[in-house]
Design a protein that fits this description.
Strand order of the largest sheet: 14-13-12-11-7-10-9-8-15
CATH class of the largest domain: Alpha Beta
Number of helices: 10
Structural class: alpha/beta
Order of helices and strands: EHEHEHEHEHEHEHHEEEEEEEHHE
Number of domains: 2
Helix content: 25-40%
Distance between the termini: 30 Å
CATH superfamily of the largest domain: Dihydrodipicolinate Reductase, domain 2
CATH architecture of the largest domain: 2-Layer Sandwich
């Protein structure tokens, strides 16, 4: 195994805080630092995880000799913080989404290629057992030719999103509501893209104009977006068609899932369970085919279907020099750009639009 590395965790709040122990306990991590502009939170997390090295700003952290940073800041800052960190010579792990604009996609890919440093997107769907199971099935030929895929991220705003906005923005929170659902597409897009090994090339999308009197989606917000649900139909480079649904106003429990249909077999994952299907019937399955074995220190329960520990391990092993991350920068923008362009299509009443290619 490689030498031990140092990692600075930026934004160890409610989500980022879930990763601190995993990084600290990894046998190839010899040093962990915490970074946050909220001094009270920073002190509390430092005490909780017994970490002495702390920084009050990203700039201070980047001026240190820390080798890698894990970015868990507000999602609209991910791209700029990643570019800043790469420019400072740090390897980067970023929470999703990687980018919210095509210009940010360009800048991120350019900086990764210029520096030659490791960049990894922490997309949970790719590191769930379902994706590992289906990727293996695809490589074995069990699907046959993949002809159609579906993916969705269903998260009604009543399931915690209002509270999150209030905590982030305080009394001005209503100005920042109504983000286009397709600007947060990685949970739904990544499964079909990763499993098929292809990319999304063009899209036609439609949006549902929100009618709820709570005014969460309004014209006088930062984005002026009125679509609370967006549905997109994509062409994929391998010939398959893929339907993606990003829904924020819907009577449904929160769910991330996908379905893959092939000429020989299919995999169905929705709120009712998981099934492997063939022409002679179907069986209930509980995917347990993960990736390579974890270190003993990381064999613990973790969030998003157990994906958190696998993402930490993937990043640490990549920085230690043993592999390019599964969710590298090309994959990262390949999960984000389809949603960005899909929203543009929805704004144009379903116009068919091409999706840029960074491969």
């Amino acid at each position: 195994m490689g030498s031990r590395i140092s990692v600075g965790i930026v934004g160890p709040g409610s989500f980022g805080g879930q990763f601190v122990a995993h990084f600290k306990n990894h046998p190839l991590v010899g040093r962990v630092a915490l970074c946050d502009a909220n001094s009270r939170l920073l002190s509390a997390r430092a005490r909780e995880f017994q970490i002495a090295e702390t920084y009050g700003s990203l700039e201070e952290l980047l001026a240190s000799d820390i080798e890698a940073v894990a970015i868990f800041t507000q999602h609209w800052l991910h791209a700029s913080h990643a570019v800043m960190s790469l420019k400072a010579g740090k390897h980067v792990y970023s929470a999703v989404p990687a980018c919210r604009t095509l210009e940010e996609c360009d800048a991120l890919v350019s900086m990764v290629r210029k520096t030659g440093l490791v960049y990894m997107l922490g997309e949970t769907t790719v590191f769930r057992p379902d994706a590992a199971f289906c990727r293996r099935k695809a490589q074995e030929g069990a699907f046959g030719e993949i002809v159609y895929c579906e993916g969705e991220y269903i998260h009604d705003i009543s399931h915690g999103l209002v509270r999150v906005m209030q905590e982030r923005y305080g009394q001005d929170w209503r100005y920042y509501t109504g983000e286009p659902p397709m600007w947060y597409p990685t949970h739904s897009v990544s499964g079909p893209v990763y499993i098929t090994g292809s990319r999304m090339t063009e899209v036609s999308a439609r949006g549902w104009l929100d009618t709820d009197p709570d005014g969460y989606f309004r014209q006088d917000t930062e984005t002026g977006n009125l679509f609370s649900n967006e549905i997109a139909l994509f062409r994929m480079s391998g010939g398959a068609v893929c339907r993606i649904a990003e829904m924020r106003r819907v009577g449904h429990p929160t769910h991330e899932g996908f379905r893959i249909f092939g000429t020989k077999g299919s995999y169905l994952w929705d709120a009712s369970g998981r099934r492997w299907c063939a022409k002679d019937g179907w069986t209930e399955v509980v995917p347990d085919q993960w990736y390579e074995p974890l270190p003993e220190e990381l064999k613990v329960p973790s969030g998003h279907g157990g994906s958190h520990v696998y993402m930490v391990h993937e990043f640490v092993m990549s920085v230690a020099g043993m592999r390019v991350p599964r969710t590298d920068v090309v994959q990262a923008v390949g999960y984000c750009a389809p949603g960005i362009v899909a929203h543009q299509s929805a704004q144009r009443d379903g116009e068919l639009l091409k999706i840029p290619d960074w491969e």
